Amino acid sequence: MANANNRKTAHIISHTHWDREWYLPYEKHHVRLIALMDTLLDTLENDAEYRSFYLDGQTIIIEDYLQVRPDQRERLEKWIREGRIHIGPWYVLQDAFLTSSEANVRNLQIGHQDASHYGTIAKVGYFPDTFGNIGQAPQLMKQAGIDNAVFGRGVKPTGFNNMVSDSAYESSFSELVWEGPDGSQVLGILFANWYSNGNEVPVDEAESKEYWDRKLADAGKYASTGQLLFMNGCDHQPIQTDLAEAIRVARKLYPDMDFVHSNFPDYLASLKSSLEDKQLSVVRGELRSQRTDGWSTLVNTASARVYLKQMNQVGQTILEKVAEPLAAFAHVTGRAKYPHHLLKYAWKTLMQNHPHDSICGCSVDEVHREMVTRFDKSRHVAETIVDDSKHAVAGTVDTSVFAGYGQDPLPLVAFNTTGWTRSGVLEIELDITRVYFREGIAPNDMIRMMKEMSIEGRTLVDADGNAVAHTVEDLGLQFGYDLPDDKFRQPYWTRRVKLTFEATAVPALGLKTYAWVLGAANDASSPSMVTGPRTLANANLCIEIAEDGTLAVTDIASGRTYRDLLIYENVGDIGNEYMFKQPDGEPVLTTKGLAADIRVIEDSAFRAAVEIVHHWSIPASADELFEQEKQEAVYYPERKAGRSTTFVPFTIRTVVSLERSGRGVGISTTFNNQAKDHRVRALFPTDLAASVHRADAIFEVAVRGNEPAVEWENPSNAQHQQAFADVSDGTQGLTIANLGLNEYEVLRDGRNTIAVTLLRSVSELGDWGVFPTPEAQCLGEHTTQLLILPHGGDGAATGAYADAYQFQAPWTSAQTGVHSGTLSPTHSFLAWEGEGIAFSSAKIAEATGDLMLRWFNMRPEAAKLQAQPNVGAAAVAYASDVLEQAGERLQPSGESANGSYAAELGPCEIYTVGITAAK
Predict the structure, then answer these.
(1) Burial, 817: exposed, middle or buried (Cβ in 10 Å; 0-12, 13-18, 19+)?
(2) pLDDT band at 897 (very low <50, low <70, confident <90, very high)
(3) Of the residues 56, 95, 129, 398, which is catalytic?
(4) Residue 482 bears catalytic tag
């Protein structure tokens, strides 16, 4: 409550910012956490004036503590339920830019679920140390019932009575209105003096007077009201057990000031009451420290230890774009229960790699070694869910039609788990036949039978009997085993082949069935896409490869040619895991003009590929001065080191591929890095006139300026991306999609070149001390994947962005038998349309068992969505939110048997629908 006499109030909120792993490996921080929590529980029990503690907004702290101290569960729960320990709303404090849209939502969902077990959830939009803040945070918070956001980075406070805010990224006060691209607004609280501005409050009167004179002045410089926030804690900060005494001393020294041991609910209530007649700055969209000198944005964590980002992309994608939708399909067909427990475990294991000091790659080497194991663990669970779900769904597909197309048909199902109709090349391994050990045949006889089996005379056909062009690789004799639910493991020998073919027009969130049949029609034939020694072409694109390996890509629909694509660039890096710094005056090395070995390596009916090999050499490392500068902790912008005069080989193998139906050029780049202290990028000049560009962010295609603000001093203007970056002049555009390459820059070179970072090699953590990280040099083999997508100016409307999103998700396929079934050979579980709208996820809600579907509007203008779920007659649909809470029931539109639903999405709206199938 606000004070009637306008007395100022110092709200002291106790907390600890708990990085699970950072400058120490996880378990060393873990041991300290146990001690901190033990002290907290004792303090709460023994000191009634120690009113409350905020547990850093992340419920994983509870898990970590109880893992070692299960005997303390009752005590912990008591203080949570009594409101003296505040928990939630997140599971972990993630880096929001480097974790996917759905990973951010799962983090919020699981944090709420875990907190709800204790009967309370702190409705605080807590982002204390994220390295920049995503533009859609206000909308996510509002949908989760949170009307505020508390954060430490991204906005420049100008200061009350100092200067007036004149920018969308500056605020006159530490309190502001943060507005998302959809118009959602939350009350923003900026830690203008950081989240440690009330740390270690003195008990000694003289020290307390000096402390509070300084602290009150600092807070008053930015605060818009007399409600002043002081955060009593910092990174891994132990509990201040004498805080009650320190507050008593402060009250004695400042009788005209109220000092309270506060909490966020009380502070926010008091602040809102005091703000009734205040006009706050409105800050809009992404908060990336745009109005600063650019040296401390920490953006280059997007390229530190790229291998972690690539593993994260695989892990996120298999969960949200494959395992969840396939498990949902299996659930709605009635063939398998949705494995909520396994998916939650897989998500939690993955999200343990999502804190900002983990996924950002800015910790000591031991931390990131353990992350690799977590990535593997999460992926193994997800792969098991995928295997079980795809075979369950495949078993419901009617494949009996293939019995009429030849002998011994071997059916297979191609699954499209993305939100758009899809065509593309996929591979599947088929067992022609199996002989189980249980059959009692002598081992040598089994092996002989498999080896003598013929694989000749077979053709791949679709459900209409049409031949499908494919290639066959004989994998020969293979050992395998089944793990039945009701029997001991069942080993077998099999004769196995690998088929490669192009699946065409597989429906969105659906499947298409094929079969490899003996004695069917002849294979289809198509003209070669290799049109010359160094040229490829299909109906959409023409690719010319120059002697130096650069590409000229022509968009056939428009006739526009993009030249000099795929130049590799190399520069030195004397920065650290947080920030890139190129040595002053160092020349840029590129492969432009460097002759390459070029040869065709694939020329099939469905795909053509060319190999490009650059035999390059680059400096071996930074020079000797660099070691001295690191050891003396010289601030990285002030370093003067250069690059070594010793060179090492750097051979780059690139495979450029084009699929028959493809609208993009595939780029696979492999190299063995033996150099240190450097950065490698791939350059794609667009030659398009544009002052802004677009990049895939969290539930948003963010629009960003090509030129930084006038305050920007850093020569680099690198940015975060998820799936793609795009430059367009309104009529033509070029999108560069990626897999796990989260850093790009649009160069100020007169050509609006999109530069994508493939590798950054550094050798120290940076930040507040001297922490060597030799493994951050990323020595060894690396492979990166990109996709070049020319389009007609609007990537959302032309489908280029949809292609970029599909590029993220792998194809899934399953061999099955000849059987009847309830699903047709070509089936979609959801038909929908809506220009400029992107599909995000399909899953089953744990609380209701309903199918949850989510889209987002990629554009800042309204869009119409029409959706028809195919999950059973009389399905009921309702609007929902990111926490999967039911809202307004949707009325069917049209005359579809299953019901078609229409909705209008507002600009940049995140839209979730729940489907309750008829029981």
Answers:
(1) exposed
(2) very low
(3) 129
(4) no
